[in-house]
Fold:
Amino acid sequence: MYILSFQVESLVLRSIGPFYGQKEMLKEKILIVDDSEMNRSILADMLADEFEITEAENGVEAVSILQNHSNEYSLVLLDIVMPEMGGFDVLAVMNRFGWIEDVPVIMVSAETASEQIERAYELGATDFIMRPFDASIVHRRVVNTILLYAKQKKLVSIVEEQIYEKEQNSSLMVDILSHIVEFRNGESGLHIQHVRTLTDLLLHKLCAVTDRYPLTEADISVISMASALHDIGKIGIDDKILNKPGRLTDEEFAVMKTHSAIGAQMLEDLPVHKNNPIVVRAYEICRWHHERYDGRGYPDGLKGDDIPISAQVVALADVYDALTSERVYKKAIPHDEAVDMILNGKCGSFNPVLLECLAQNALHVKNALSIDAQKTSKRQQIRSFADAVMQSKGGSASERTLRLLDYERMKHNFFAEMSEEIQFEYSAGTDILKLSPWGARKLGVPENIISPSENMALSALLGEGWWQRIGDLLNTTTPEKPECSREEQLLLGGEYRWYNIIIRAIWSDDNPPQITGAIGKAVDIHDARMRFNELKEKSIRDPLTGLLNRAGAREQIEPRIHGFPDHKYAFAIFDIDFFKLANDEHGHQFGDKVLSYIAQRLNHSIRQSDLCARIGGDEFLIFFEYDTDIHPIIARIFKALCGVIDGFEVHISMGVSEMQEEGESYEILFRRADQALYFSKRAGRAQYHLYDESMKDILTDREPDSDYEERYGESDPKDPKNPKNHETK
Amino acid sequence: MTLQECYTALSGNYDDVISRLKSERLVQKFVLKFLDDKSYELLLNSLSAGNGEEAFRAAHTMKGMCQNLSFTLLGNSSAALTEALRGLDTNVDPALVETVKADYLKTSEAISAFKASLGL
Structure:
């Protein structure tokens, strides 16, 4: 895997020696997984002096701990038979996520059947300790295993660190340089990155299928980095040719072709560093990445393996990415089609072994180009870098980094706790729902729930079908807009409370992208929602009569008109004749009494399904549905609303409009009823009229939603300031 | 009552446990802890509820603990019951269950007596 130079070996000898058992070193961490507290306790007592022990009482807990901290543990002691999730399942998960590579597992079990032991080894367990165990044997085996893995880990880390450090220095400059070239070419910022990733991938595959090209890990790394410089010669090409949108003429193409030789020349002319491995590889790549395997390329017409393998691979990566990317002169070609074109020789002539690598790795190639893949590999690099520094002596910078990380984690936990929000994260891969400690306590469920869709406690909390509801909700998200939210009632302590569940879906960068999990929180909005409902109810009601106000009426009527456009609806608008007179003569209290009386009569004379509202000082609206003849209904209502109160004879004038065509709007029905009302008033009051075409030119000075209320506040519509009154008087 | 006498009373192997766990203090701590373990109750409840999976696990856990503590008598009978329950069917020979019950009684009585003699 890694080629160790003698220099590295001496480093190893210097640093491995004292790592174990020294006071100033961190204690190695061991995770003990067993459902019996006593068994855990016996093991913990045996090991607590030398190791830091974490206990988990079943597989679910163990997986959850490893999910976030697998790299912190030096060893897992694992029982086989456990509730929730057994030891074999834990091993399977550790395999699936590759944790088994870094964290050794010793099985501890009373199982004696050889097939069980066999299975444990097959699943990657390092050792198997049978109960009843002997303290000194457990201790010896634990220490041996940790030592063995620690050595290996340290070797890997040290080598990685060396390579990484060396690369770090050049990587930055290469990135800047290649970015400049790219910028000038007007290419997508990802081309260089893609070529580099593909080069790395193809070279690894190449080394796996053949030993024809003896490349070390370090060689591959250098070639991949140098690949970024493949088009550096384009700096020497005239802008007009380089960025010409149309087809190049033969002369222009001939100029363009010189970029490979120019690039090579630039590198050859470097006053220093000429023998630096990156420069050497970059020279090969620049000069020969347009050669063809059949010898018909440029600039030198090299054939077959006369072309350095570095240039062959970069040429293939370059062509693949050019095909699958969008350019000014062409659309992006889908991955599968691009691979087919290359394999069928439509895009040049390549080494058959390389084509095989591309074909075999086709899917991998596609995924590797996703941004996420690059990020992950970067993260891995950084982590191994951090690991190495942590384990080698004198890594003061990284200790600080780790402290900061710890600080961030502590901060996060603190705020999660203080926020009194139920926070959660779900990963589809492990099918585990993790709740914040506060959230789990609030809901009375464990912090880690495996297969949440089948969890009874969650069903009881959220109601049947919650998994489906949340699933549907998540499906409304997109990678561009991954957030969504939904209000759900939770049954907590026998009481339903409203929570707003806010979720961010985690989308993969696959093609097509998929949801791989979600994070989110549930916030108690019960009180706020109740207050809102109350306020809302208040805002659409008239406080004196308890009827809907004008805004409330409109809000409730419009959905009905739109929802059932084929139903027959009618509007009736009326006001009380000489109401101002009654107000003036008997006082406002009497006026209020009249209004309340009317409201009461109104409530009694309409059906449950009808609506009535006080839409102005003494103006009311009735909205109702009818089947055939509207006249008897109006007559009945009109009659019901007239009467005597405290010697004051109440009469009303009313205008009615019925729906003439399907789908007529609120505004039209309102205006017509208003026009019919004016007609009734002009005709001498105390009467009602149904709107007809003859009234269509009556001016009422008002639109159904005129803003006079806004302008005059709750002013009495009979107020002289109200322009409407000039006409009625 | 000494720890050794307690082991004799519950038909366990004192020498074995001391040779494995090395410390009398540790052994005493775990022996006393044995009374707090809920596996036995879980076993009986699962058997009467017909929950074979749970019963198997409980018997298995008990067997493991007995082996760790060298409780030979109860270890053997719970091992036999564990094997019988491996098919996850609670329909096992009642004699096996009765033996485990009798052995558990003997074991827990011995530990209780030991605990009392320590003034705990």
Chain B touches chain A at residues 16, 19-22, 26, 29-30, 33-34, 37, 39, 54, 56-57, 60-61, 63-65, 67-70, 79 (CB under 8 Å).
